[in-house]
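Hi U.,

Before I forget, here's the chain from the pilot set. I'm dumping it here mostly so it's searchable later in email.
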Amino acid sequence: MGFGSPLKGPPEKGISSVLGAAISRARRECVLRDHSGTAKEIQSMQALAQNQFVNTILQGDCIQIMRQMPANSVDFILTDPPYLVNYRDRSGRSIQNDANADWLKPAMREAYRALKPNRVAVMFYGWTKVDEFFEAWKAAGFRPVGHIVFRKSYSSKSRFFSYQHEQAFLLAKGRPPLPKLPLADVMDMPYSGNKLHPTQKPIQALVPLIRSFTLPGELVLDPFAGSGSSCAAALLTGRKYFGAELDATYFNHASARLERVKERIARKKRSSHGLIPTMG
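Structure:
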């Protein structure tokens, strides 16, 4: 899951220009139709721009990509950013920009801007850097409203304790309504196998969060998409998704994975009269 993080330099060539051109084209189309500046024109422009960020993953700096997104345009954020620990797995795989926090505050500002008012975000974090994450979240405007522990059946590391959990904060923008059936704040996290990414999150652990905090058809954002677990979970539960991933290898894995999920859903629809699978 999403540990591809933004670089300090400019985004990959073509990303901003492509997105900017699409948004500019939408604006021109609206203005050519009607110069009156009506609410209908503005809504049409926003819809055309928003369509550039639905059911796709883009490769590049997530800060630059989110800056192209309309404000207040996503319904839920579910993301797993770099933990700032310079992680490397047993096979030597690493995560870009996991050794500095230069990207953290700008990324959280853009995530907050993209999220609709009175909605929530679930963000994983590294507990050894909790102060830096909290500072960035609060500076962006997020308000912590819950904490989640994901219990693992295996140990990822042993020091003073045998480390057998992951953690995430539930962050609010405004005053979101309470869910009718609140989830427990301790959940099981099965082993994903980490085949596509060194810290790949299992879809099974993400599906309940998406179901709890969104409705079918709503848009889930993952700015650190990694292997695409959040995006796949959104699609499998009948939601829309948008992701950004910096690392080319993980981006390719995520893109191929989402195509497989789309094909699986299409097959299920054909064989079960439109029912969408909930796991996978």
